[in-house]
Amino acid sequence: MAAKRPKFCGWGYEGEGLTPSEHEMVLERYAERFGVDGFARIPQRTRDQLDLHPARIEVPAKLSDFCSGGDFDRLTHTYGKSFPDYVRIYDKDFTNAPDIVAHAKEEDHVEAVLDWATGANVAVIPFGGGSSVVGGIEPAVGGNYAGTLSLDLTGLDQILEIDKTSRAARMQGGIRCPDIENGLRPHGLTMRHFPQSFDLATLGGMIATLDALHGAAQLDSHPEALRQAAMAERIVITKSDLAGRRATGALRGRLAHPTTAPTLFVPLATASCCQSG
Ligand SMILES: Cc1cc2nc3c(=O)[nH]c(=O)nc-3n(C[C@H](O)[C@H](O)[C@H](O)COP(=O)(O)OP(=O)(O)OC[C@H]3O[C@@H](n4cnc5c(N)ncnc54)[C@H](O)[C@@H]3O)c2cc1C
Question: pTM (2 decimals)?
Protein backbone atom coordinates (compact mmCIF):
# COMPACT_ATOMS: atom_id res chain seq x y z
CA MET A 1 0.00 0.00 0.00
CA ALA A 2 1.36 3.46 -0.91
CA ALA A 3 2.34 5.59 2.09
CA LYS A 4 -0.07 8.40 2.92
CA ARG A 5 1.35 11.83 2.08
CA PRO A 6 0.66 14.82 4.32
CA LYS A 7 -0.97 17.73 2.47
CA PHE A 8 1.27 20.64 1.61
CA CYS A 9 -1.61 23.05 2.24
CA GLY A 10 -4.09 22.18 4.95
CA TRP A 11 -4.34 19.72 7.79
CA GLY A 12 -3.97 15.97 7.43
CA TYR A 13 -3.20 13.70 4.52
CA GLU A 14 -3.83 14.04 0.79
CA GLY A 15 -7.29 12.82 -0.17
CA GLU A 16 -8.68 13.42 3.33
CA GLY A 17 -10.70 16.37 4.57
CA LEU A 18 -14.14 17.87 4.67
CA THR A 19 -16.74 16.90 2.10
CA PRO A 20 -18.19 19.74 -0.02
CA SER A 21 -21.37 19.78 2.12
CA GLU A 22 -19.32 19.95 5.31
CA HIS A 23 -17.40 22.86 3.78
CA GLU A 24 -20.66 24.67 3.10
CA MET A 25 -21.87 24.04 6.61
CA VAL A 26 -18.65 25.46 8.11
CA LEU A 27 -18.79 28.55 5.87
CA GLU A 28 -22.44 29.16 6.75
CA ARG A 29 -21.60 29.01 10.44
CA TYR A 30 -18.69 31.44 10.00
CA ALA A 31 -20.90 33.80 8.00
CA GLU A 32 -23.50 33.70 10.76
CA ARG A 33 -20.88 34.19 13.44
CA PHE A 34 -19.32 37.20 11.71
CA GLY A 35 -22.65 38.62 10.52
CA VAL A 36 -21.77 38.61 6.81
CA ASP A 37 -23.54 37.23 3.75
CA GLY A 38 -20.63 35.15 2.54
CA PHE A 39 -16.91 35.15 1.79
CA ALA A 40 -14.77 35.83 -1.25
CA ARG A 41 -13.08 32.52 -1.98
CA ILE A 42 -9.49 32.00 -3.00
CA PRO A 43 -9.07 28.65 -4.73
CA GLN A 44 -6.82 26.12 -3.04
CA ARG A 45 -3.28 26.43 -4.36
CA THR A 46 -2.01 23.60 -6.46
CA ARG A 47 1.60 22.57 -6.74
CA ASP A 48 1.98 23.60 -10.38
CA GLN A 49 1.00 27.20 -9.50
CA LEU A 50 3.93 27.62 -7.16
CA ASP A 51 7.44 28.70 -8.11
CA LEU A 52 10.40 27.70 -6.02
CA HIS A 53 13.79 29.35 -6.09
CA PRO A 54 16.45 27.11 -7.67
CA ALA A 55 18.25 24.99 -5.09
CA ARG A 56 21.47 26.68 -3.94
CA ILE A 57 23.22 23.52 -2.80
CA GLU A 58 23.72 19.92 -3.81
CA VAL A 59 24.31 17.05 -1.44
CA PRO A 60 27.29 14.75 -1.96
CA ALA A 61 26.70 11.34 -3.53
CA LYS A 62 26.83 9.54 -0.17
CA LEU A 63 23.67 11.38 0.94
CA SER A 64 21.79 11.27 -2.32
CA ASP A 65 19.93 8.00 -1.59
CA PHE A 66 17.77 9.62 1.05
CA CYS A 67 17.84 13.27 -0.03
CA SER A 68 15.56 15.03 -2.46
CA GLY A 69 15.40 18.39 -4.17
CA GLY A 70 11.95 17.65 -5.63
CA ASP A 71 9.27 20.33 -5.61
CA PHE A 72 6.77 18.34 -3.56
CA ASP A 73 9.28 17.67 -0.82
CA ARG A 74 10.41 21.28 -0.74
CA LEU A 75 6.85 22.62 -0.65
CA THR A 76 5.72 20.29 2.13
CA HIS A 77 8.72 21.17 4.28
CA THR A 78 8.49 24.95 4.07
CA TYR A 79 5.66 25.70 6.48
CA GLY A 80 3.96 24.41 9.59
CA LYS A 81 0.24 24.65 10.21
CA SER A 82 -0.40 28.11 11.61
CA PHE A 83 -2.81 30.64 10.14
CA PRO A 84 0.08 32.91 8.99
CA ASP A 85 1.63 29.84 7.32
CA TYR A 86 -1.57 29.26 5.35
CA VAL A 87 -1.78 32.92 4.40
CA ARG A 88 1.70 32.78 2.90
CA ILE A 89 0.89 29.56 1.03
CA TYR A 90 -2.16 31.24 -0.50
CA ASP A 91 0.07 34.21 -1.24
CA LYS A 92 2.40 31.78 -3.09
CA ASP A 93 5.29 32.90 -0.91
CA PHE A 94 7.82 30.08 -0.74
CA THR A 95 10.87 32.26 -0.27
CA ASN A 96 12.08 30.10 2.61
CA ALA A 97 11.60 26.71 0.97
CA PRO A 98 14.45 24.38 1.90
CA ASP A 99 16.92 23.60 -0.87
CA ILE A 100 17.03 19.93 0.08
CA VAL A 101 14.85 17.56 2.07
CA ALA A 102 16.57 14.58 3.69
CA HIS A 103 14.43 11.59 4.69
CA ALA A 104 16.40 9.96 7.49
CA LYS A 105 15.62 6.29 7.96
CA GLU A 106 18.37 5.48 10.41
CA GLU A 107 20.41 7.33 12.95
CA ASP A 108 23.48 7.15 10.70
CA HIS A 109 21.60 9.28 8.18
CA VAL A 110 21.15 11.99 10.81
CA GLU A 111 24.82 11.94 11.65
CA ALA A 112 25.90 11.92 8.00
CA VAL A 113 23.70 14.94 7.25
CA LEU A 114 24.96 16.90 10.25
CA ASP A 115 28.60 16.05 9.46
CA TRP A 116 28.29 17.25 5.90
CA ALA A 117 26.14 20.29 6.71
CA THR A 118 28.56 21.59 9.32
CA GLY A 119 31.42 21.65 6.82
CA ALA A 120 29.26 22.99 4.00
CA ASN A 121 27.70 25.76 6.14
CA VAL A 122 24.21 24.43 5.50
CA ALA A 123 21.46 25.09 8.05
CA VAL A 124 19.65 21.90 9.08
CA ILE A 125 16.08 22.11 10.36
CA PRO A 126 14.65 19.00 12.02
CA PHE A 127 11.16 18.15 10.75
CA GLY A 128 8.76 15.80 12.53
CA GLY A 129 5.04 15.97 11.88
CA GLY A 130 5.34 19.53 10.58
CA SER A 131 2.48 20.63 12.86
CA SER A 132 4.40 23.48 14.48
CA VAL A 133 2.34 26.65 14.78
CA VAL A 134 5.25 28.87 15.77
CA GLY A 135 7.45 28.70 12.67
CA GLY A 136 9.56 25.93 14.18
CA ILE A 137 10.15 24.06 10.95
CA GLU A 138 10.39 26.95 8.51
CA PRO A 139 13.90 27.29 7.09
CA ALA A 140 14.03 31.03 7.82
CA VAL A 141 17.65 31.29 8.88
CA GLY A 142 18.90 34.56 7.43
CA GLY A 143 21.59 35.01 4.84
CA ASN A 144 24.61 33.51 6.58
CA TYR A 145 24.23 29.99 5.25
CA ALA A 146 25.06 28.47 1.90
CA GLY A 147 21.61 26.84 1.91
CA THR A 148 19.03 25.00 3.99
CA LEU A 149 18.17 21.35 4.49
CA SER A 150 14.99 20.10 6.11
CA LEU A 151 15.73 16.86 7.94
CA ASP A 152 12.55 14.78 7.91
CA LEU A 153 12.65 12.26 10.75
CA THR A 154 9.38 10.44 10.18
CA GLY A 155 11.28 7.46 8.77
CA LEU A 156 12.65 6.88 12.27
CA ASP A 157 9.36 5.44 13.44
CA GLN A 158 10.01 2.32 15.50
CA ILE A 159 9.32 1.36 19.09
CA LEU A 160 12.49 -0.46 20.08
CA GLU A 161 11.79 -1.61 23.59
CA ILE A 162 8.97 -1.53 26.09
CA ASP A 163 9.70 -1.99 29.77
CA LYS A 164 6.37 -2.59 31.43
CA THR A 165 7.78 -2.60 34.95
CA SER A 166 9.23 0.88 34.75
CA ARG A 167 6.55 1.91 32.25
CA ALA A 168 9.14 3.22 29.83
CA ALA A 169 9.29 2.82 26.06
CA ARG A 170 12.38 3.38 23.95
CA MET A 171 11.31 4.79 20.61
CA GLN A 172 12.76 6.49 17.59
CA GLY A 173 12.16 10.21 17.44
CA GLY A 174 10.09 10.37 14.24
CA ILE A 175 7.32 8.03 15.36
CA ARG A 176 3.88 9.62 15.11
CA CYS A 177 1.37 9.64 17.98
CA PRO A 178 -1.03 7.07 16.47
CA ASP A 179 1.86 4.61 15.98
CA ILE A 180 3.02 5.18 19.54
CA GLU A 181 -0.41 4.40 20.95
CA ASN A 182 -0.91 1.42 18.62
CA GLY A 183 2.42 0.02 19.79
CA LEU A 184 1.80 0.61 23.49
CA ARG A 185 -1.83 -0.54 23.64
CA PRO A 186 -1.14 -4.29 23.53
CA HIS A 187 1.07 -3.80 26.60
CA GLY A 188 -1.64 -1.98 28.51
CA LEU A 189 0.29 1.28 28.27
CA THR A 190 -0.35 4.73 26.86
CA MET A 191 1.68 7.95 26.56
CA ARG A 192 -1.45 9.74 27.78
CA HIS A 193 -0.55 12.69 25.60
CA PHE A 194 -3.24 13.39 23.05
CA PRO A 195 -2.60 16.76 21.41
CA GLN A 196 -5.16 17.93 18.90
CA SER A 197 -2.40 17.45 16.37
CA PHE A 198 -2.30 13.74 17.29
CA ASP A 199 -2.53 12.44 13.68
CA LEU A 200 0.66 14.14 12.53
CA ALA A 201 2.76 15.03 15.58
CA THR A 202 5.84 12.95 16.36
CA LEU A 203 7.63 12.04 19.55
CA GLY A 204 10.64 14.19 18.62
CA GLY A 205 8.45 17.17 17.78
CA MET A 206 6.67 16.91 21.10
CA ILE A 207 9.89 16.74 23.06
CA ALA A 208 12.06 18.99 20.98
CA THR A 209 9.80 22.00 21.01
CA LEU A 210 12.21 22.64 23.88
CA ASP A 211 14.80 24.32 21.72
CA ALA A 212 17.85 26.32 22.67
CA LEU A 213 15.83 29.51 22.23
CA HIS A 214 12.70 28.62 24.15
CA GLY A 215 13.79 25.52 26.07
CA ALA A 216 14.03 27.00 29.53
CA ALA A 217 10.56 28.57 29.40
CA GLN A 218 9.11 25.35 28.05
CA LEU A 219 10.63 23.31 30.87
CA ASP A 220 9.30 25.75 33.43
CA SER A 221 5.77 25.76 32.15
CA HIS A 222 5.16 22.17 31.01
CA PRO A 223 5.88 19.48 33.59
CA GLU A 224 5.01 16.76 31.08
CA ALA A 225 7.63 18.10 28.66
CA LEU A 226 10.14 17.99 31.45
CA ARG A 227 9.23 14.45 32.41
CA GLN A 228 9.39 13.15 28.85
CA ALA A 229 12.54 14.98 27.89
CA ALA A 230 14.38 14.04 31.06
CA MET A 231 14.26 10.44 29.90
CA ALA A 232 15.70 11.13 26.45
CA GLU A 233 18.66 8.92 25.78
CA ARG A 234 20.77 10.65 23.17
CA ILE A 235 20.57 14.34 22.47
CA VAL A 236 22.47 16.58 20.10
CA ILE A 237 21.78 20.25 20.70
CA THR A 238 20.84 22.26 17.63
CA LYS A 239 19.70 25.84 17.05
CA SER A 240 22.47 26.98 19.37
CA ASP A 241 23.60 29.35 16.63
CA LEU A 242 20.26 31.12 16.92
CA ALA A 243 20.16 31.10 20.70
CA GLY A 244 23.72 32.29 21.25
CA ARG A 245 26.47 30.95 23.46
CA ARG A 246 25.18 32.26 26.77
CA ALA A 247 21.64 30.85 26.46
CA THR A 248 22.90 27.54 25.11
CA GLY A 249 25.44 27.26 27.92
CA ALA A 250 22.75 27.95 30.50
CA LEU A 251 20.54 25.29 29.00
CA ARG A 252 23.40 22.80 28.90
CA GLY A 253 24.01 23.46 32.57
CA ARG A 254 20.38 22.87 33.32
CA LEU A 255 20.33 19.67 31.34
CA ALA A 256 23.21 18.34 33.35
CA HIS A 257 20.90 18.28 36.32
CA PRO A 258 19.04 14.98 36.52
CA THR A 259 15.63 16.52 37.08
CA THR A 260 15.79 18.90 34.15
CA ALA A 261 15.64 18.10 30.52
CA PRO A 262 17.65 18.05 27.34
CA THR A 263 17.00 19.78 24.08
CA LEU A 264 17.30 19.20 20.51
CA PHE A 265 18.01 16.49 18.30
CA VAL A 266 16.04 13.48 19.14
CA PRO A 267 16.89 10.53 16.97
CA LEU A 268 15.93 8.26 19.85
CA ALA A 269 14.16 8.77 23.13
CA THR A 270 12.81 6.84 26.06
CA ALA A 271 9.32 8.05 26.85
CA SER A 272 7.57 7.50 30.12
CA CYS A 273 4.17 5.85 29.78
CA CYS A 274 1.08 5.34 31.90
CA GLN A 275 -1.06 2.33 32.58
CA SER A 276 -4.02 2.47 30.22
CA GLY A 277 -7.57 1.56 31.13
C1 LIG B 1 -4.38 21.66 14.60
C2 LIG B 1 -3.26 21.68 15.62
C3 LIG B 1 -3.50 21.28 16.92
C4 LIG B 1 -2.46 21.31 17.87
N5 LIG B 1 -2.73 20.86 19.13
C6 LIG B 1 -1.76 20.86 20.07
C7 LIG B 1 -2.04 20.38 21.39
O8 LIG B 1 -3.17 19.99 21.71
N9 LIG B 1 -1.02 20.38 22.28
C10 LIG B 1 0.23 20.81 21.94
O11 LIG B 1 1.14 20.76 22.79
N12 LIG B 1 0.52 21.25 20.70
C13 LIG B 1 -0.42 21.29 19.76
N14 LIG B 1 -0.15 21.74 18.49
C15 LIG B 1 1.21 22.19 18.15
C16 LIG B 1 2.10 21.07 17.57
O17 LIG B 1 1.34 20.02 17.08
C18 LIG B 1 3.02 20.52 18.65
O19 LIG B 1 3.98 21.51 18.96
C20 LIG B 1 3.74 19.21 18.30
O21 LIG B 1 4.41 18.76 19.45
C22 LIG B 1 4.73 19.35 17.18
O23 LIG B 1 5.16 18.05 16.82
P24 LIG B 1 5.64 17.73 15.32
O25 LIG B 1 6.15 16.32 15.30
O26 LIG B 1 4.61 18.08 14.34
O27 LIG B 1 6.89 18.70 15.24
P28 LIG B 1 7.32 19.68 14.06
O29 LIG B 1 6.25 20.69 13.79
O30 LIG B 1 7.80 18.91 12.90
O31 LIG B 1 8.55 20.38 14.78
C32 LIG B 1 8.39 21.18 15.94
C33 LIG B 1 9.79 21.65 16.39
O34 LIG B 1 10.56 20.54 16.83
C35 LIG B 1 11.71 20.34 16.01
N36 LIG B 1 11.81 18.89 15.85
C37 LIG B 1 10.89 18.03 15.34
N38 LIG B 1 11.31 16.76 15.45
C39 LIG B 1 12.53 16.80 16.03
C40 LIG B 1 13.48 15.82 16.41
N41 LIG B 1 13.27 14.51 16.26
N42 LIG B 1 14.64 16.24 16.95
C43 LIG B 1 14.86 17.54 17.13
N44 LIG B 1 14.01 18.52 16.81
C45 LIG B 1 12.86 18.16 16.26
C46 LIG B 1 11.46 21.12 14.74
O47 LIG B 1 12.64 21.61 14.15
C48 LIG B 1 10.59 22.28 15.26
O49 LIG B 1 11.39 23.28 15.81
C50 LIG B 1 -1.16 21.74 17.52
C51 LIG B 1 -0.94 22.15 16.19
C52 LIG B 1 -1.96 22.12 15.26
C53 LIG B 1 -1.70 22.56 13.86
Answer: 0.82
